[in-house]
Amino acid sequence: MNFPKDLKYTKEHEWARVDGKVALVGITDFAQEKLGSIVFVELPPHGKSVKKGETVVTVDSVKAVAEVYSPLSGQVEESNESLKDTPEFINQDPYGQGWMVKIKISDPAELGTLMTPEAYQAFVAEEEAKG
Question: Is the predicted pLDDT of residue 131 greater than 80, yes or no?
């Protein structure tokens, strides 16, 4: 399992790569593995306001429909439109081509609520131990 060091994580298995006031957001390698092959992605429109913990993206996989929650509050600056035609990017490259949205962060203090890679790795290990 892959836990890139330049990301922040949530307990709902989203990641955020923060660059200044913008966060690139997606789901983790652990999440995509649990979902199985992703076949459809519903992305938000440009300009949509989101709050931390709100659904920002919906993904359909062969196993389930899953909601992706925004790890931070802000405004959607861009959605990864290529996922409409190639949702499998999420499975193949969750931290690269499989990114989902770019969010302009409205409350930088929320960054402190996200997990470090080490904390997320420990959290995943606990989840796997539970079965």
Answer: no
